[in-house]
Write a structure and sequence with these properties.
The protein is an all-alpha fold and 340 residues long. The protein is 83% helix and 0% strand.
Amino acid sequence: MITPITWLLLAISFVFSIIMAINLGANDAANPTSVAVGSGVLTIRKALIVFSIFVVLGALIQGHAVMKTIGKGVVPEIEIAGAFTAVVVAALWIFFSSWKGWPISTTHSIIGAITGYGIARYGIWNINLSVLSKIVISWLTSPLAAALLSIILYKILIWAYKRYGSEKLERALPYLVIFSVAFSAYSFGMNDVANATGVYVTVATKLGHIPDEIAMLILGAVASIGIIVGGLTVGPRVINTVAYRITRLDLAMGFASGLSNACVVYLFSVIPYYLFGYGMPISTTYAAVGAIIGAGIAKERKSVEYKMVGKLFLMWILTLVVTIIATTLFFSIISLIIPP
């Protein structure tokens, strides 16, 4: 029998999950949109409108691929108290970072929180280290892949400029940049919707006796709304950081980095899902920043603000440390009140 306090925890944690989605939109809306804003193709408002449309499509059509990984992949099972602890810690950290204008990894935040919960609840050796190790590897390889692809695409564009002339390409590039925003937003919705609601897949199945597919569709819809709200309200604070403070983007750089980011996020979500049964919850922030750095290096190495890149890297490391430790301690306290 489920006690009243358990239902209260479930209700509070679900509210925090919506807050988490809002925070996610606030921090990560910059990932797909910054290339269009930084290159001058779209205003922040117009870029966010494109983002809002395609993030919903990605979340509803293919969001289940990564949601399954977070909900049932890293730890054996996430109970109500665990879901409550993970989303509260992750949401508070992301809110603080967004308020400061720091483009952190929301994926790191929720995976770190779930890992901290798993350590406190099951012990470190009962965490699915195979899945977790693949996630960590994807965190390292995705920004490198995005940077490399961005360099290649930029070089191809410059070659096309010289071979076929710049007039036609210059007319086409703004539309190509907008396409990259739409594709990137779709991939973002597909990958990052799990950060807000993936912890509830098991909870919804157990308490509501809802099939996984239906539960993930409902959770994806709820998270999409929160992501849009966060993107439209607080999102511009982080967009300005990514769009202008890493390097100065022109149209060719905007397209190369935007398309690279979109391709990497999409492929890391889809290919592992078909090979292993679960998509990789990569950091879309890592991929976006990696792609922009790659474009900057391709044009001129000195154009990249390496000091800012170093600060972002330190914040990403701090995100894991804070969320793991905070969730481990918080869940240990919660467990004294409500035994598992």
